[in-house]
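Reproducibility note. Readers wishing to regenerate the assembly model reported in the main text can use the exact inputs given here. Chain order matters: entities are listed in the order in which they were concatenated for prediction.
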Amino acid sequence: MMNVLRHRLFWPIAALLVLVIVNTVARPSFIAVTVQGGQLYGPLIDILRNSAPLMLVALGMTIVIATRGIDLSVGAIMAVSGAVALTIIEGSPDPDGMGTVLIAIVTGVLVAFVLGLWNGFLVSVIGIQPIIATLVLMLAGRGIALLITGGFITTINSDPYRFIAQGYVFGLPFALYVSLAAVAIVALIERRTALGMLTEAVGINPEASRLAGVRSRGIIWAAYAVSGLLAGLAGILYSSNIMAADANAAGLYIELDAILAVVLGGTSLMGGKFSLAGTVVGVFTIQTLKSTITFLGVPPAVSPLFLAIVVVIVVLVQSPRLRGWVARSTRWRVRPAASRDTEGSEVAPS
Amino acid sequence: MTDQSMLERPTLGTAIQRFLSRRASWVPFFAALLILVLMFAGAQAYFGNFLTPRVISSLLLDNAYLLILAVGMTFVILTGGIDLSVGAVMAFTGMLGASMLRDGVPAPVVVPVMLVLGASMGLGVGVLVQYFDVQPFIASLAAMFAARGLAFMVSLASIRVDDAGILWLQSTRIQAAPGSWFITPTGIIAILVVVAGALVLAYTRFGRTIYAIGGNEQSARLMGLPVVRTKLLAYVVSGLCAGLAGVVFTAYTGASYPLNGIGTELDTIAAVVIGGTLLTGGSGFVLGSMIGVFVYGTIKTAISFLGAEQSWTRITIGGLLLLFVVVQRLIVARSRRR
Amino acid sequence: MLADTEVAPVVEMRGITIEFPGVKALVGVDFTLRPGEIHTLMGENGAGKSTLIKALTGVYAIDAGTITVGGRQREFRTTADAQAAGISTVYQEINLCTNLTVGENVMLGHEVRTAGRIDWRATHRDAARHLAGLGLEIDTHSLLATHSIAVQQLVAISRAMVTESRVLVLDEPTSSLDRGEVEQLFAVMRDLRARGVAILFVTHFLDQVYEISDRLTVLRNGALVGEYPAAELPRAELISLMIGRELDELSALSRTAVREIDRDAEPVFHAAELGRHGMLAPADLEVFDGEVVGIAGLLGSGRTELVRLVYGAVRPDSGRVRIRGKAARITSPRHAIDHRIAFSSEDRRAEGIIGDLTVAENIVLGIQAKRGWLRKVRRAEALAVFADYAAALGVRPSDPNRLVRDLSGGNQQKVLLARWLATAPQLIILDEPTRGIDIGAKADIQRKVAELAGQGLAVVFISSELEEVLRISQRVVVMRDRRKIGELVSHDIDVADLVDYIARHEIAETVA
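Running the prediction on these inputs yields the following structure tokens for the assembly.
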């Protein structure tokens, strides 16, 4: 029992379950899944489907945060990749052609990948703080997207493209497969190669990693590139869902949702150990929370307020001072000096 | 006594060097000023009718709210922090103010309420940062979420403002000089905020402590300076400015809309950085931020003169921001190597 | 110039005890500081010097004992409390703001104000007066960053004068000053002493200790060794007091080191004139196959600096390196690793272990970094490496999945040793691998080092414990005051000889 309690995913999963239970009690139809024409429908299915863009972005954000970084530009990158893909389809004589759609998707994602490389270059080579380096693209990215679409909301009609976000395969939304595939591929790359462990090493202790010979520059660079790539894919999903490239609304605030999902999943903003499974749980939690807020009759526009409350609770729980207060009331007194720790190590016997 | 710097008596030969050693922190400011002048010159050469009293006067009128936000942001960035909440707080205070005015509350009550509201949101951010070791980025992000949600809670739709007093702030055109030079009360407010900000930073212990914290927080603490109080107050100043910007922006648009100011925090940060304030803190001036805002405004005006997409504004600002950050980075790298 | 013992002390610390979680950093230490004296605090790493200073300056709260300043018992909760009691501190990493002007740094928090507005003219005038009081005439409007470290030190001291401090704590102020700058600082210190200020001084430079101090207090392992008038304590005795003797099972270990090294062969590593300005005077170093080269010297003598330059952790600005006779360029750890050089830092926690990773992950990190990310060290392989190296070194608990930060210091050290041995180096540099670890682990590590050298590995070994250095090495490089002062053959000498060599060896003083 203690082991279950101590597992790092216990609290994230518990929070998700509580949300699901509260929803179910409030409206039993919440967990109802209906079958229509061999396809599954229901609030839970919607959550799985709608969470796909956030899932992709949050996966990339997890890796970036593990390196002690942050990527604010993901929303703007989404807008760019959607704009690129839709502009290609719109300009094509054959918007329903499989080839057209594939070219559009690949180009959109590639552009996003290049933008990710750019972020990584600024952070790992030039040495600019991640917040600022990605802020540049966050500012300029939407402008670029607007330029690509000529300042309009590009709308298209293309059945293969629509299928990406709205289609069904074996009774489940295709978008769900995309997001699961992304989780699987990222997990495979991070955990079957040494990338995950080296990323954690760089995030936990950059100096020790450097002295151990880890090529941290390449690892950090790769993290931003992956984040850009996944954001590009998310942009495709988003634009396919509304069949329009809206440079202003695409991925708006998604960077914040993604950061929140990562933190909810138990990955510290200070970098280091990361949990992809935790991020998955975090994404579902946020999506469920949003659906709950909508269900409560709160306008979606007000939902940031609830997210703010969740953020504050999460950071307070992570806060050393609050933990100190709890610790003091339970056992030992806490000292004011933060530098004690390092001093302690100098004299610590075994 | 072998080291030259030990003696370092000013001589004629070292006059320039001495100026640089005294005024090194003003170099980015002059760089920003130079860019502004070049932009003016370029725009004038290209359009022929750019540098008119009307256009220049509008620069202040159209960007008064941004100028006020930039002053507050300068305080926070000087301590080494960041405040992402300003745009949303501006929208929230604007919405609340507009709805109170609509309900018949008199403006002399509404305006102080808006200011206090902004200041207390700033205080909230400061408390999270200072007492709970939350990164400024995350803490102000939470405030941004909260303020945006609250703004929508006030009303989902735009609220018109008919209060004569508030509208007067924007509609009054005071002739400032012969010709069509004019200034509005909102412009005067913005200028007053800049002056007040500059004076506080230059001539009070609070202001100097802000620089000390940004330079080296650990040192400031060991010097016995009131670090906690000062950092808290910096966020309060930023929140207060956001509240004031809410007033000014409401007057500017004659209405409040909960989506006002989306992305404004980024514009503000960009303007402050372009104005020569180091994002790592400890170096920069309110006057520089003012130049940064004018650079932003000039880009915007020039683009509308061109009849080009307004999206070029953000792209240009992003590019300028990048340029400045890279240059700052190189300067820091060079000073480390010394 | 020794202050009269009869004068009422300005600071009296009695029975000071400070505990960190699980460790007693100071145990019942007494310390007395009298007006008009320069009192030097001596001790090796972990002796408790900085802890004692931080107790006096309000950075740490004390767990037991009393602090009396100016006849009144005090309780310092913050640094501001200590400053209010008249105690000012200048730390090694100068606690000023380099982004502000000299004048501001002197006056911050004490600016002259009229009606709430800072009067800059008067403020700078006051600052200039305080600086002039220390013989420093510089432009108070210039940025602090444009001045040398030496000037910054003096500015920090002037700051203490503004608050009219009775006690000035100087924590290693001379560590990055050149000779002329030290002279100027000492002149200021003597002047302040004459004015009745009590100065608590910390330095690692023995020459300076004897040049300036009236009195010495020696700490070792968090306990007081004693207080001595500087004039009555010979250098050799001081060093012995600081180092102490651990009469333990280690003494039973015979000298494993008496072994002939083939010096006609090409050395594994050869550096000529390796140095970096302000860090280490150019020094030579040679290591042969199967040889353990010890580096002896006190803390701050340049021993760590030397090996960091060898490894490329810090980029040297002079010197030529040859690996097995072939010229090599080592300016980063990657280069060193490519030449099969391994380095274990003295700061285990900040520069060695990756705390939140497991023991197995920490051990394979070296191999993994070499291989690149694509070829992951598989689980089975990692366990084999763990079994080969960690188990052989006796890592306890013998659990590869344990987080390394939960291990004791000795076991963390073994993990680091295992990490490097697994990469099959030809030269391994161990900086204080036995510091702060228990006797058993210490013996394990020494035994392993001797065994590896026996198998042909070249080793550079640094330790504060001279006995250990002598026991384990064939040759000892002796460092003092950031330069190499000589090389000795280990089996010709004993600890007393070595101490004597460090204490008395006259270095060719370059004209400052």
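We highlight two features of this model. Confidence is low (pLDDT under 50) at residues 507-512 of chain C. The interface with chain B takes residues 78-80, 83-84, 89, 91, 94-101, 104, 108-109, 111, 113, 116-118, 120, 136-139, 141-143, 145-148, 150-151, 159, 178, 180-181, 184, 512 of chain C (CB under 8 Å).
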